[in-house]
Amino acid sequence: MGKPIVNYSKIHKSFGDVDVLKGINLDIKPGEKVALIGPSGSGKTTIIRMLMTLEQPTSGTILVNGENLWQMEKKGQLVPSDDKHLHAIRGDIGMVFQHFNLFPHMTIVENCMLAPALAKKNDKKEVKIQAVEMLEKVGLGDKINLYPAQLSGGQKQRVAMARALMMKPKVMLFDEVTSALDPELVGEVLEVIRDLAKEGEMAMILVTHEMDFALDIADRILFLNEGVIEEEGPPSELLVNPKSERLQDFLARFNKR
Amino acid sequence: MNSIMDISLLLLKGIKITLIVLAVSIVISTLIAFVAGLSRVSSNVLLNKFTGVYVEIFRGTSLIIQLFWFSYALPGLFNIHLGSDIWTAVIAISLNYGAYMSEIVRSSILSVSHGQTEASVALNLTKFQRMRHIIIPQAIRMMLPEYGNYLIQILKATSLVSLIGLTDLLYYGNIYRSTHLSEAPTVYMLILVFYFVLALPLIAFTRKMEVFSKKGVAQE
Ligand SMILES: Nc1ncnc2c1ncn2[C@@H]1O[C@H](COP(=O)(O)OP(=O)(O)O)[C@@H](O)[C@H]1O
Ligand SMILES: [Mg+2]
């Protein structure tokens, strides 16, 4: 099935003396859609934040395209990565946050243009054309000159996705991107993600509580519990015939709601 | 009635110095505030500590004593002459208010939501790009109302320069009073009015900035 685009091996992470992740091993194949589920506080966010370089693992390695993310070679020795090394590697990763984190002082088209323009991916005119196209794709073509404060939560989250997509990441991370939204706005955001998933080439890791949605688009589901991946498999199997008692409990609690 | 006219004409002579000291001090103290404020949030420990000491020294002593130091003590002690009296005044005021204002630069930068930094990292901006395009523009919006208040304070502080011999508004008022003792109330009433009129544009600026700064900032 080809080389993994992302590989976690023996990843541990503690905050102070709390061990949050206790040995995560994980391969993500190019284009694969993986849903990450588990109780709140189990470390789902931490797992993807380490890949986005927002959090440093306590031990273990993460490879992106075969390259060591958190360590680099210097005079024949492995040392912690510096900014330059992280900058060179994390271009392949993109992330959408629970609370959008749009830049409030810029219009939404400027939000989308900033990073590609600074990275000189294209000249400014070309970047603007692409940004407008991207905003059209998420259904906001008529709002490009508005500021984030003028949008609904669902619209903000769609801008955040367009902005992340502008950098053409090979892996996109979604951290409970609908959980800060009013229920009636969740659908429009999931719709955009579903379309992206169908396009196929970009790998996705989705932290989500939307089980139906996970069942629908994920190639694989990981159940995280107490710092380890307790169970994993294709959605039809894992959600329908959970093996571990903990996953059964977890799903039962969900179905009750 | 006649004396009001006379006094006003005399005070107008002093306005020039007041305005020059005000304008140049605003420019220089703003520059100092940014340099010091950015140093205070930098990860360079030496720079950070050094600036911290500067800020505490200048906030911890009064402007009037700093004025006297720059104009009388430094020349006597170290043979340091800061040029004309105007420059001495401008430098003392700028260092003093630069220290105060660097604190609003620092705290504004620190109060831009951490999510903004995280989004910048996720978009692979460099540290410099993140400061330049995301953090500082939002910090400036946040600091503007307080910045306006400091400008008004700088205007008021300029009235101290007559104590080191500059011929500003207050200086001319005092001159007039010393020869027309009975008209002291009129003199100081007019001086109040003059300072208030000078402050009006700064007050208007501050109000405007309060409205402006409410837009376009992500705060924790
Ligand atoms: N920066 C941090 N400092 C201290 N503790 C943290 C930090 N980030 C996360 N944690 C802790 O790590 C655990 C896992 O957090 P998180 O990855 O956010 O879980 P999840 O996303 O599954 O709800 C939680 O107990 C949380 O309190
Ligand atoms: Mg989380």
Automatic annotation (TrEMBL), chain A:
It is found in: Cell membrane. It comes from the Bacteria. The keyword Protein biosynthesis does not apply. One of its GO terms (molecular function) is ATP hydrolysis activity. InterPro entries: AAA+_ATPase, ABC_ATPase_HisP-typ, ABC_transporter-like_ATP-bd, ABC_transporter-like_CS, Ectoine_EhuA, MetN_ABC_transporter-like, P-loop_NTPase. PROSITE patterns: ABC_TRANSPORTER_1 (PS00211), ABC_TRANSPORTER_2 (PS50893). It is a peripheral membrane protein. Residues 6-251 form the ABC transporter domain. One of its GO terms (cellular component) is plasma membrane. Its main location: membrane. CDD domains: ABC_HisP_GlnQ (cd03262). PANTHER family: AMINO ACID IMPORT ATP-BINDING PROTEIN (PTHR43166), GLUTAMATE_ASPARTATE IMPORT ATP-BINDING PROTEIN GLTL (PTHR43166:SF9). Belongs to the ABC transporter superfamily. This is Glutamine transport ATP-binding protein GlnQ.
From TrEMBL, chain B:
The chain crosses the membrane at residues 15-38, 50-72, 78-100, 150-173, 185-205. It holds the Pfam family BPD_transp_1. It is found in: Cell membrane. Keywords: Amino-acid transport, Cell membrane, Membrane, Transmembrane, Transmembrane helix, Transport. The keyword Membrane applies. InterPro entries: AA_ABC_transptr_permease_3TM, ArtM/GltK/GlnP/TcyL/YhdX-like, MetI-like, MetI-like_sf. GO terms for biological process: amino acid transport. It comes from the Bacteria. GO terms for cellular component: ATP-binding cassette (ABC) transporter complex. GO terms for molecular function: transmembrane transporter activity. Residues 15-200 form the ABC transmembrane type-1 domain. The keyword Cell membrane applies. Belongs to the binding-protein-dependent transport system permease family. NCBIfam families: HEQRo_perm_3TM. This is Glutamine transport system permease protein GlnP.
